Amino acid sequence: MQIRLPTKYIWGKLGKLIAFSLVLSSFPLAVDAQTLTQASLKSSKKVKIPKLDRPGRRESGGTRRPGEICISGKVPILALLLPKTNLGLTTAAYPRFFWYAPNNTAQQVRFSLYKVDWQLRQRTLIYEKSFKPIQQAGISSFSLPKDSKIGPLAIKEDYLWSVSIICNLRDTSPNSIITSYGWVQRVRLERKLANKLPKLSQSDRLSIYSQQGLWFDFLSTLADLRTCSVRNQKLSTQWQQTLTQVGLKLISQAKLLAVHGHSPNCPPKKSHSSGLQTEPTKNLIDQLRSLRNMRNQN
After folding, report:
1. Is the pLDDT of residue 64 over 80?
2. Core vs surface per residue 57-81: b (16+ CB within 10 A) or e
3. Domain for residue 133, yes or no?
4. Is 225:238 a contact under the CB 8 Å cutoff?
């Protein structure tokens, strides 16, 4: 025996479902990573730079004898991406370092890391890496490798890091080498914040990094987000504002070029909840089709 529902009941039920579908359609069915990032950046603040400074030289153009200059361009300097204090903080055991190199005809670029003993006034080389120069002006980065050659950075210890542009490998005199150097110090976050970080998205971590003055963590995360969303203008603006904040406006629009020893961890394009949002819509459509069939049968 086939049960036929009254036409009035069918249309009443159908009207409610249609009204519900209209309300549901006014909400986004999915939120992509770029939207989340843009919302986070609206509330982002400047990085709080700790009142700690170290003797250093984050920018170095230098003067050379004619014929021995291997850098050129509108901004002919080698610059480390550091605050004016020459010191950046990080929570990373193996941090990522950034520097700007101008147009050049160098033969080699060399990264060096030293552990410094202030009392003995001596430094000890603990890691060194050489790279093939990129002749185009831009920003490069390098992450310390997690291997047996170098242990994790110690908490509250000062490390000196430098980048050198070597114009001529056969000439070891200062006339052939352009060097900039600065400092990095690893710190430990409060346990509550440390436990919270892994649960946050990359864009949400930026807020904590800026509040805690974690320069290296902030810059590395922002660089990853830029790499993953190259057309996101808000990310580019945030990057430029960050470098301008620390007096590096001249290189704030430089391209991100070589990335050594690091693979960006790109966020998913859609939020995890997007699937939960689209399923009710599918069910609603099925119900509407069922009620329409019932009406036709009447």
Report:
1. no
2. ebbbebebeeeebbbeeebebbbbb
3. yes
4. no
